[in-house]
Every structure is written in C-alpha cells, then in structure tokens.
Amino acid sequence: MKQLTTYLLVLLVVWAGQYAKGQEKVFPFVDYINNVKTNHPISAQAEITARIGELFVLESRGAFDPELYTDLGQKEFEGSRYYRIFDGGIRIPTWYGIEFYSGIEQANGDYLSAQYTLPDNGLTYSGVSLKLAKGLIMDQRRAMLKTAQLGQISTEQERKIILNNLLLDASKAYFQWQLAAIIKEIQLEGLELAQVRLQAVKQNALLGDIPYIDTLEASIQLQNRQMLLAEAELAELNTKVFVSTFLWANYVVPVELAESIAPQKDFDYPLNIFSDYLRNEIDSLIPNHPEAIMANLKVEEYDIQRKLKLESMKPELNVKYNLLNEPFVDNFASNYTLDDYNWGLEFKMPIFLRSGRGGLQIAKLKLQDAELDYSFKLQHLNVKSQQAVNEFQTTSNQLSIYTKTVVDLSQLLTGEQRKFDNGESSLFLVNSRESIYINGRIKLAELEIKNIFALLKISHSLGDLYNNL
C-alpha cells in the first residue's frame, strides 16, 4: 500500500505540472527584450538624445552659411538730401578663416564725404578677407563646429549608455520574475507532495501501520508548505508587476501582463556570443566602452579650447582686398582690373596679454584634468569588467558543483523514502530530506539566474549589451 501511495503521489505531481503548463502562455525573454528596445519611453529618449547631437552640428554649421547683407543710411534735413548710402551683397565664409564677398555700393547726396563719392551707378566690388595671425589656425566658428561634432559623437555614446542600463535593469527584472515563477512551481510541487503524504499518513495510521503522531508531523509540514507557497506566489506577483513597468506600446501606453502570462522556465537564452569576451583581452575592449569614449571626447574638447586660447595670444592681423568695377556696363566681368581696387589692413595686440595667458593656463589645466579623468575611467571600467568575468566564472563553477549536489539530494530523498516505506525511517527524516531537496532546487535555480545575469553584466561592463540582446 505504501508503494502504491508513492506511485500515486508521483502521478499527481506530473499531472498537476502538465495541467498548469497548459493554462499558461509563455512570454519568452527574447520577445520581452525586443519589446523594451522598441517601445520603452527611455528608448525613445535615447534616440532623442542622439538626434539633439545631430542638430547641434547643424546649428554650428550655420556659422559657415553664406549670408546676404545690406547697409542703408539716409539723411534728409530742411528739404535737402544730405546723403543716401547703400552697401549690399553676399558674404561667403570658409573653414580656413578666409571670407569671399561681392557687393555693390551706391551713394548720392549734397554733402557726401569724399570717400563716398562714387559713379552715378555706384561701384561693384569682389574681394577677400584673410586673417594672417589670430584666427588663422583656429577661431570661434571652427571651435564651435568641432565641439558640436564631438558632442554628436558623445550623444550617440550617451544613447548607448542609456540603452545598456535600461536593458540590464529590464533583464534583471525578467530574471527575478522567472526565478520567482520557478520557486512558486517548486513550492507548489512541495505542497502537493505534503497534501498527498498527509492523506497517506492518515490512512496508514488508521490501519495501524504508523503512530498517529505522524499525522501531526505531516499536518505541520503541510502548513509550512502552504506558507512557503503563499510567499512564493506573492514574490511572483510582485516581480511580474515590476516587469510590466518595462512594457509599453508606442512609447506612451503602459502594458500590463495578463494573469495567464508566465516567463519561460528554461534557461535557453541566445547568449553564446558573450563567450567571446572570455576569449579576448578585456583591456583591449575597454577603450570602446561608451563611457571611455565620452571621457576621451572630453579630452579632445578641452584640447580644442586650448588651441583657441593659444590663438588668442596672437595679434590680430587682418587684411582685405577688393577689386572694383562699375555696374551695368558692357563686358562687366572683363572690366575688372588690378588697377581699380581698395584694400585695408587691421592690426591689434594687447600689451600685457593677461587675458590670453590666464585663459590659456585655465584651458591647459582643464585638459590635464580631463586626461586624468580618462585614465581613471579606463581603470574603473577595467575593474568593473574583471569583476563581472570573475562573477561569471565563479557562478559557472558553483553551478557545475551544485547541479551534482541536487542530484545527490534527490537520491538521498529517494533512499530515505524507500527506508520509510520499509519501516526503517521516520516521517520527520523524510520531510527533512524533502525540504533540503526543495531548497537545493531553489538554490540551483538561483545559481542559474545569477550565472546568466553575470554573463549579461560582462557585456554591460563593456558597454555593448544593446548590440548583444
């Protein structure tokens, strides 16, 4: 009879497990992550961040746009036109600090200065303006554009950091939900075993095969299993609610998981690519981390500022040259001659250069600070990645050991159950062996999750989790 009871218990557990699986709809990890990447608001914010970087570059390029200009001045007093002066044209700046321009000047009036005395139709001019000292190598416009271009790269790296952190948090939430669901399933099996055992013990006690005190032992065990299952159900429910916070539709509509939705119970994840990290030198991968790239970009940005401040130490020496011609005449272009021109020279230089010297020293110190920060960032990221690798290797070894431990615990339970069936053991020992086996299965599931998450942390520590999920 005792052997029959054990056989019926096994059938009940198998049937209950199959029935539960038939009622659930599995939400695989891959589908979950794809939903997070596609629909989470933070994913949209990451894209916005990258787009802002592109627009900063567009804004800075505007400093090199050709521009139309007009300058009109007129004075009328007591019926006399003192003057009417017009100057208009187009100016084309270039990357190297050279400006090309072309325009027309017209002037008339009763009291014009000699410099504004022009032909009746005015004069056209085409010329060039060149910075020969300050601004030749670097100027504010070029510095702004270069900084914006670095900013564009930086915002792209920031996007990767945001997504890497999001996906790590989302993965952790799913794994916690998966672990809670597995523990609930294990505790449910334990409860069903306790229920069947209580009925069998009561029946055997009535037959006089075992003392009635064993029914109290079995009842207490059932109550304990009920408490453990309730705790497991609460944990599964709470982790499921937390997982829902990562699920959205079209970035704006939160999605709530239905009661019938369950995580996958197996640990079959497409994560084989991560093993490549263990075959490479971590040090060689660290400089490609978005945080390391951003720190290096900060060095380049301060180097631009240093070059700009260095330029400010130079004197201003600007020269411009214009070819002159009368408009509205035949053979307009061929009438330009080197004999008709005007030119100008501008020179300025501070005597003490205090502003330039102070600004240059500040820029050098900021550059030095950025270089130190970059070195520290590389070391910090290297330590973080090594810790992740160590955790993965340790949990892998633990997993290998504890898998055998659980098998051994199962054999101990089977042997103790057989001794109990033969009257050579007590219900207390069977319950104790069973509890240890259940706790062993839970610990094994925890190690599985911890090992997988450690693998993800390696990728996260190298800054490319988004590319590998």
Structural features, described:
The chain is of the alpha+beta class and 469 residues long. Helices cover 61% and strands 15% of the residues. The protein has ten helices and ten strands. The strands form three sheets. The chain has a six-stranded antiparallel β-sheet with strand order 2-3-4-5-9-10, with no helix packed on it. Helix 4 (140-206) runs antiparallel to helix 7. The two termini are 53 Å apart.
For the biggest β-sheet, the strand order reads 2-3-4-5-9-10
The number of distinct β-strands equals 10
| End-to-end distance | 53 Å
Give the assembly state of these chains.
Answer: single chain
Largest sheet: 6 strands, antiparallel
**What portion of residues is helical?**
55-70%
